[in-house]
Amino acid sequence: MAESGGGARQRAVRRSTNDAAADSIQPSVVPISSRSTNRQLPRRLERGGRRGGGYGGGTRLAFAIVSLIIMTCLLMLPTRTRDQIEIDAGGGRISPMHLRRQRHLDEDDVNKGDNVTPTGGEEKQLKAIEHPDQKFDDTDDLVDDGGDEREKSVAGNDVAKLRDDESDADDIDVQMNKEEETEWKKMAINLEKDGNGEEEENVEEELAFPMEFVPIHDVHLAEVSAGKIDGKNSVNESEMIDMRNLVQTLPFENVDGGAWKQGWNVQPKQGKLQVFVVPHSHNDPGWIKTFDQYFQTQTKNILTCVYNALLKDPRRKFIWAEIVYFDWWWKEQSESVHEQMRILIKEKRFEFVTGGWVMPDEANSDIYALEVQFDEGRQWIEERFGSEVLPKYGWSIDPFGYSPTIAYLSKKRGMEGLLIQRVHYAVKKELAKRKHLEFMWRQVWDEEGEWDILTHLMPFYSYDVPHTCGPDPSICCQFDFARLHNRHNGCPWRKPPREITPSNVAERAHLLIDQYRKKANLYRSNVVLIPVGDDFRYQSQLETENQFRNYQAIFDYVNANMKDVSIQFGTLSEYFEAVKGKFTPPILKGSFFTYSDINEDYWSGYFTSRPYDKALSRRLESVLYAASRMGATNEEMREDRRTLGLYQHHDGSKFKYIFKHLMTFDACMTVIIFFCD
């Protein structure tokens, strides 16, 4: 449509005016990826700098005061120091008392992001790696092969006089960090002593890592006898696993066949097998999409499809972890749906697991935030369905490593068992070889085992169907009926699933049960847990019916024709209740950090990156705590608690959303700099 001449002229005048204004001000935004070290400033600021003018004296003073206040607030926010992270990775946090200790932001982390300055033994190890042909003296100095010393390092309390005060202050700070690090290590070692009066061993010797690794070739599963879990301390004290010692002895090698082959020939387990197939759907509140987008496009449909499927057949069951999503879905349903869902929950066909607001990250989240998200979700369940349906068992399949703090918090809330998944592949193989994939997780500070909690570690690569039925993913994928007709990109092993019919059910059933028996052989009981699900599964009624209908056809055949197998849809609590009394579990102390899912790809960067994001979380924690102490009501703080809980989710956001937010922030900062002139 042609526009009038007057309108075009008015727009031309506005454009010329805007262009002129832009030329005189130019608060330009430079893309982050292309920004040089010398930041491009608005022209007026550049001209002011050349004239010797620029900011006025009063403006400079105000700007300096504001900057000082902001930095002071950030430094006062509670977060983990590098030493506390190191102890957490080595064997779990020290105690609840230390967990509540006020934490501070490491100044290097705030100023440098990922660049954490190594101290003490860390610096020596780094030098040794960088200079393998050199040697070091007792003061950690690099020494030439000829014996000529290079520059001496500062040792003990003898601080050399440096050229300027700033360098002197930095050196004292490094020395204080070394002393604090040594004290933390001594505390960790003392807590592990048997109390028999032995003299304390050298700290450096205790923490030294042996570098001699023995390859694993022909490995056989350990022969163990069954015992019972029938009391508070009914555990095998002779089978004590300390993760700090275990990781020092592992070969950390990729055996032939890929990182996720077990490395030995897994033979089928004999005897009667009891199988619980547990349908689930993992719903991240923010990852590739935002929290809102996921709910509107996927999660809302998932819960509706599962609800309808459960009403069709009383043999079907389902578990759900993320209360933040269920709350949203619940608010949109009618009262009749509420009543039907209450019946499903009362009949234990729809089961909440863990009960937290989200499935939290376990490395960076502070204990206060973890407790808030735990209690917000569990309180939501209790208010609507009663305390009798509060989850007794935890389901944590996607966080990138696991802290004993979660085990402690779970036990504190009356829970009896946990399921975990993302553990270093070499650790999984070693525990599977020993049949230690189920254990009593003990706190390092707990002498009597009062806080022990039974923990089930999934043995394979992931929690999707190809990696949960048994050791051969090419076979397991054939029983992911959501992939029928090449949905979900089919099976990458080029062996697609097939609809179960009367003509093929016998062959299909025997193939599947063989995988179940091989998986059961990695555990000490004849009860086997088979999760069936993946990220955002059961999105359509067709997909949901395909899974339930085909599995039920296999169940009917197996239960009628295989006398040594019983199989059914189940829940997490049904599995844990069935496994009780079947064996005596070993004891495991420590944490499952640092996680690696393949080769040497360690998930450790986020331990020290994003300091400002972590500071924001700590700020909200402190505000919430202060509000609770000043008399704010539970209802007044509910939305803020839920915001804090959502922030503890283990995933980050998609890059394009992060980039968009960073660009917006950058534009705001450019405008602020201009108006300070």
From TrEMBL:
It comes from the Eukaryota. The keyword Transmembrane applies. CDD domains: GH38N_AMII_GMII_SfManIII_like. Residues 1-53, 101-155 are annotated as: Disordered. GO terms for biological process: mannose metabolic process; N-glycan processing. Residues 121-137 have a biased composition (Basic and acidic residues). Residues 25-40 have a biased composition (Polar residues). Residues 601-666 form the Glycoside hydrolase family 38 central domain. The chain crosses the membrane at residues 53-77. GO terms for molecular function: alpha-mannosidase activity. SMART domains: Alpha-mann_mid. Keywords: Glycosidase, Hydrolase, Membrane, Transmembrane, Transmembrane helix. This is Glycoside hydrolase family 38 central domain-containing protein.
